[in-house]
Amino acid sequence: IDVSELMANIARQRNRRAVARGEVDVRVGDVCSSDLGSSNFDRIFSVHCIYFWRDVDGALAKLTEALRPGGKLVLAFRPDSDDIPERFRDPTYRFPRLEQLEASLAKAGFTIDRMANSAASPTALLLTASKA
Questions:
Q1: What's the whole-model pTM score?
Q2: CB count, 10 Å around CB of 77?
Q3: Which region, left, alpha or beta, applies to residue 95 given φ > 0 means left and ψ of -120 to 50 means alpha?
Q4: What is the distance of C-alpha 43 from the center of its chain?
Q5: Are 75 and 127 in contact, with CB atoms under 8 Å apart?
Q6: pLDDT (tens digit, 9 = 90+) per residue, 41-86?
């Protein structure tokens, strides 16, 4: 699920074989308004999408519902910091403060398993959490 039609089209193209086999479904939309069902997923990955979530608590609650017990959520994101370029300081983007995100994850029923800086992008964090 991506809010951008362009990014969804790129994902469909890059995953065309898996899409053709029915293993991957790419949709345009907002996670909060998408019907993900209950306990349908073992793993959910979100790579640099959290900036566009208007309601982080609502999105995390939706993802918790969609995961099976023990399911994993992986977030790759850049937390708020003073070195985020000014061009990203507009209403489109929201960079979470790490302590706020940790509280939101706990509220949604996640336990943080691991957090590390990305080797590919040292300003980005990779966070893995489990559904309780």
A1: 0.87
A2: 20
A3: beta
A4: 11
A5: yes
A6: 999 999 999 999 999 999 999 999 999 999 999 999 999 999 899 9
